[in-house]
Design a protein that fits this description.
Blueprint lengths: L2 H6 L8 H30 L1 H4 L2 H23 L17 H25 L1 H7 L2 H24 L2 H40 L4 H37 L13 H20 L1 H18 L1
Helix pairs in contact: 2-4, 2-10, 2-11, 4-5, 4-7, 4-10, 5-6, 5-7, 5-8, 5-9, 8-9, 9-10, 10-11
Length: about 290
């Protein structure tokens, strides 16, 4: 079979009920990722009050990268794709980068909430909205610089860079994310409980609880993939043991998280939920 025909073959041959269900699941998952993240993305864009808060800028970033993840899953999840260096159906490291950008957005949002609550005065002076946007722009540029490096060097060098970079980067960032989660939990559990009840305190508590839950689900769905990739790269083993991306449960889990994250955003923020129901979904329902 030629490479072009391999690229167009489905994730599984539709010869059994199980294969058909897997195929339908991939399409439904991709559609849910795009629909939910696009809904939240539009809700934040059309609400000026939400756009004025830095934490919603990180939500916009994660939603946009997850929209790209959902659109790309129509390819890597629906068709027979192996996304590694020597595969003829690879995406040149672009699709994994969208997943990584969601990870970086949540990590940055954790650091933002920690800084905002521990040193609120310095935070209000330092982290203007322009600087927040600069942080988001910086990690997007950094991510695609890494993509360019992987595609400009030889396969051997790219594999070597990935093995070392993935091990060091994932160990550091996962450690930071877990550490920030613990610190934010302590702050939410003890420090904010002692403060005088006010609208500002409740807003702080809600924002901390939201990022804690989002980061917790993120770690739960990503740690199997992180562990698998780090161990395989470090020991030089083959990480792609499943037939393709769409049948690998370790790689499906982060895509499931891309569905959970916007649901958690909506569940944890009253203003966002109200905007979504009244200004995004209700007008669309009336048109139908």
């Amino acid at each position: 079979m030629s490479n072009s025909s391999q690229a167009l073959s489905l994730v599984l041959p539709l010869t059994s009920c199980g294969n058909v269900l897997m195929f339908v699941f991939s399409i439904v998952l991709a559609t849910a990722i795009v629909y939910l993240n696009l809904s939240v993305f539009l809700s934040i864009l059309i609400n000026k009050a939400l756009r004025s808060e830095n934490r919603f800028m990180y939500m916009l970033s994660s939603c946009f990268s997850d929209i790209c993840t959902g659109l790309s899953y129509y390819y890597v999840g629906v068709f027979d794709v192996k996304d590694h260096f020597k595969s003829p159906t690879r995406t040149y490291y672009i699709v994994p980068t969208f997943l990584g950008l969601s990870y970086m957005a949540i990590l940055a949002a954790q650091a933002d909430r920690y800084h905002a609550i521990v040193t609120p005065f310095k935070y209000s002076q330092r982290m203007t909205q322009n600087r927040t946007l600069l942080v988001i722009f910086a990690y997007w540029v950094y991510a695609f610089i890494i993509v360019a490096v992987h595609n400009l060097v030889t396969v051997r060098v790219a594999a070597r860079v990935t093995s070392i970079g993935t091990l060091v980067g994932n160990l550091c960032t996962v450690g930071i994310m877990i550490g920030l989660n613990i610190k934010l939990f302590i702050i939410a559990r003890f420090q904010l409980q002692r403060e005088h009840h006010s609208a500002e305190t409740e807003s702080k508590r809600a924002s901390v609880h939201l990022i804690l839950v989002v980061a917790g689900f993120f770690l739960g769905t990503w740690l199997p993939l992180f562990t698998h990739v780090m161990v395989c790269n470090f020991f030089g083993l083959t990480c792609y043991t499943f037939k393709n991306e769409g049948t690998d449960p370790i790689r499906i889990l982060p895509r499931v998280n891309a569905v959970l994250t916007p649901v958690l955003y909506v569940r944890g923020c009253d203003a966002l939920r109200a905007t979504l129901f009244t200004k995004v979904w209700r007008p669309c329902c009336r048109r139908w």
